[in-house]
Automatic annotation (TrEMBL):
This is HD domain-containing protein. The keyword Transferase applies. It comes from Copranaerobaculum intestinale. Pfam families: PolyA_pol, PolyA_pol_RNAbd, tRNA_NucTran2_2. Gene3D superfamilies: 1.10.246.80, Beta Polymerase, domain 2, cca-adding enzyme, domain 2. Its cofactor is Mg(2+). GO terms for molecular function: metal ion binding; nucleotide binding; nucleotidyltransferase activity; tRNA binding. InterPro entries: Bact_CCA-adding_enz_type3_sf, CCA-adding_enz_C, NT_sf, PolA_pol_head_dom, PolyA_RNA-bd. Residues 23-147 form the Poly A polymerase head domain. PANTHER family: CCA TRNA NUCLEOTIDYLTRANSFERASE 1, MITOCHONDRIAL. Residues 175-233 form the tRNA nucleotidyltransferase/poly(A) polymerase RNA and SrmB- binding domain. Keywords: Magnesium, Metal-binding, Nucleotide-binding, Nucleotidyltransferase, RNA-binding, Transferase, tRNA processing. Coiled coil: none annotated.
Amino acid sequence: MYIVLPQAVHLILDTLHRNHHSAYIIGGCVRDAVLGLPIHDYDITTSARPELVQELFQNKGITVIPTGLKHGTLTLRIDHENYEVTTFRTDKNYQNHRTPQEVTFADTLLEDVNRRDFTINTLAYNEETGLLDLVGGLEDLNKRIIRCVGDAEKRFEEDALRMLRALRFSMTLHFSIEQNTWSALKKHAHLLTYISAERIRDEWNRMLMSEYDHILDLLYDSGVLTILFPELSKLYHHNQHSLWHPYDMFQHTQIALQHTISYTLIEKLAVVFHDIGKPDTMYLDENHHGHFPHHAKVSKELAAQVMKRLKYDHTTMDTVCTLIACHDYYLQPNERFMRRFLGKLGGDYALCRSIIKVQLADDQAKEQIRAKEKIEILLQCQKILNELEQQCPALTLASLAVDGNDLKALGLAGVQIGKGLNIILQAVIEGSITNTKADCLSYIKKHVS
């Protein structure tokens, strides 16, 4: 097999080879090349010790960043791109099921490969030797299997993050997880409590963006969902007792997620958390029908707790919470209503569009005969929103044809000016007047007289 390498990677490999050191690209870049997928990052492994790597490339005028010198990793900055070069090594004595405390530089590729996570990530390549497969990674790629290198239990006990990576690779590559690896994952899922919130968040984000159909099922079956997202696990087999909901809360959420193809991460987060408040708000009426008063509010509050736990940024948290709070807000397919709604959102068309998308995903997971009309309404609202965006109507105070000085000239002062501008804005949003200076001033004169 021949892999076309970027010029910078050629330079790195050639420099190391000319100085009598083994060097290969390894890991995800080789895996993706074999699968015919786009390659985003190139990692290089070499027999050269890190001090020598640093000297060789600094002598060439290349910026060398000691990103992980203790673990033999240097980052080379070439043509505004980063390339990690890591010395062959073995890892021992892991602390907190995450970090090796004893790193020993090795002389052979096989030693380095045997410390890695999954066989499909051990393939190495350079143009001289071609593709090197030392532990059966190519066979597992062909079988579409995620398999740990060596003893799966040992791999997960060493670094618990590998369990999330196994699940994520299964989702993104649509591979199955080999039986021994799966059994070890289920047995040691509790070790994920040792992993930092940021690492968990990043893997969770990648899973959501994978477009995999059964994200929640896979996480639940592995035991991971109960440990990391007990709020979502509570939905499992929770009957909604509603004619609108033929699926239990868990299935409903998963089906809604299946209708988020091409959605943004923020929209997917809103969909996956939109109903986590239902178990806490549900009651059955005398006819044994389920009701969920204020579940959007409770779901928003619980989602905020989950995202805070995982250290999401405030902008993401605020936007997701707004989408959840609005997921059961009934929109009306007429221009006046949509103007008002946009006005409440501060004229934020993108946010309004996201609210509609979250509602669409939610409704696609309901009883379809009953939900059909609601879905049609939402599609009409989308169309109206697009038309309004083309028209650019005034929806905020800043977009009015008048300002405080104009009202001051009419004799208004202090809080009267702010109230007056808001009165004008509401009239413009309602379509009672046009957003011209003459109409706005005429309207406020009549209103305050």
